[in-house]
């Protein structure tokens, strides 16, 4: 059951009225006719809840006040006894607008003549110190990388390539749309049920926005039907609280329709980029000059962190000594952006990897060999000047070698099959680290049942990748016991579970896994302490396995967990010990903020590297194409659950191919989204997918649980670029804008002439 499946007697329902304009002044809102609709209990407008919210900058009103900044922005909230009545009232709200010029792209937004989307951006409250909005512009943040000497880099370069690239905004299309329920008890306690990847962040934000003691805010998260980063921001939870407050604290549920989930809710960022690469005639990269313009939409949300993530990894996993990069988070009049699987990496990887194929063509070097020559190795440094090791970086060269074999690269990257059918292959490398706050935390509680089995309680949200199963595996391995005897609490209750920052960034195994190991060590220590008294030996002589504590030198001398979990009882009745409770906590360490002038710093604990390929068949008559194969080789450190790992990779690859081949929001000149439903917004369907090939390299990450790196997002990252490289090779034309549809290829190849 998901959030919207839960029903409560007397529950009310909220619906939102949204803006039909992307940029306009609100001159008046008339709710009189809507208020007369049967069953309507309250109507709230922006002036009734005039505060600002946000993740990095507080720049977004829950309901628009005086001005709307994107098509689909909420302007009023209606609470009724049924969704039908609430929606009827929504349709009777009359709003008078004065349209304003819309800013429709990041490049347009940074023009000195562009309309200001936020006139007071310099006055917004910063929730972190390392964000730098530029007043009187549409720039919400700028992150700079300055490494080495660009003058020397260009001097050492025999060949230089330069190109511009673009990838659009798109949607998460999670199976479950966003939903939240709120109730305010007479004692002031706020109960929220939310489809969220970040229940503890919701708890903190609700406490701050509504001036409620944090202990009085309780957030429950059932199983979540997909998130992909889209449920890491606080959106409907705030509106649900506003709605409950408006009706005296009664239970109110608000659930997005698919159309609202696509347009009103935050989406995936768009990107425009200018890339300039220099290399020697032998193919060694010497210089990279990179400008990335992130389309954060009407509000910043996580956009400043996306700009940081892009800057941190701006070159891809290559050794380049001289790097100049500006990564800008730019306001536009598009729906605002939030986290999306890969956290900006799929977008900038598309730019870098297309540029590398152009460079390989200019040099007359095989694209795979060019990447092998420049693959980052221990001793090299990242753009943020972190020194690579085999532990924190893995082995990209091994990934490329294995990929070369799995896709039979040596048969040729372009083969004419006759009848105007061309078969072609394209490759891409990728890397990713977390870019989480430097003090990110995770905790785990372990309790024991009287039969010796163990309950595992974590604040991690389960929304598909089987993360709690992985934690159970880690615990079972550490305790040397059957995983079937570990019972995982699947739902999250912030009053009972230990804090976990957010279930994002492919860091769950690393963070919660470390916490689980510490909790297991705590449990083992307590078992040994009590067992040592019962067995009359020192604790250091004892080991744990198969739900027993036994004497290392004589395993036949043992005592079962079930005799210890609630204390040990002697035959005469005297008892010692007490209830065995394990707890483990982990906090990120050794991370730093990036230097504002140079970008130097450590943004994450480690990078997972890998290589991907796509094989296509292109019909040169129709410009249609089929996806034949898609391959991924990633250095996972240690694969804990092979089936789950392959599933994660395959799911990510499917998403990446969707982004590369068809997924995008389209706008009219006024910034209105044109494809607001799954009838017009196309995703990859069963039957359209290729054969998936997934393999792993294992170079352990020393500080990770059993050496395992986070890989949940990585399948998506290189797919759009590998597809673009394959199709560019097949069509023998440059395809530098996503998505690549038959029409895109036709226009690039023919100039749009019939």
UniProtKB/TrEMBL annotation:
Keywords associated with the record: Molybdenum, Oxidoreductase
An example molecular function term from Gene Ontology annotations: oxidoreductase activity
SMART domains: Ald_Xan_dh_C
Domain annotation Aldehyde oxidase/xanthine dehydrogenase a/b hammerhead: ranges: 2-101
Pfam family for this entry, one: Ald_Xan_dh_C
SUPFAM superfamilies, sorted: CO dehydrogenase molybdoprotein N-domain-like, Molybdenum cofactor-binding domain
Cited InterPro entries: Ald_Oxase/Xan_DH_a/b, Ald_Oxase/Xan_DH_a/b_sf, Ald_Oxase/xanthine_DH-like, AldOxase/xan_DH_MoCoBD1, AldOxase/xan_DH_MoCoBD2, AldOxase/xan_DH_Mopterin-bd_sf
Highest taxon of the lineage: Bacteria
PANTHER family reported in the protein's UniProt record: ALDEHYDE OXIDASE 1-RELATED (PTHR11908:SF132), XANTHINE DEHYDROGENASE (PTHR11908)
Official protein name in the record: Xanthine dehydrogenase family protein molybdopterin-binding subunit
Organism expressing this protein natively: Sinanaerobacter chloroacetimidivorans
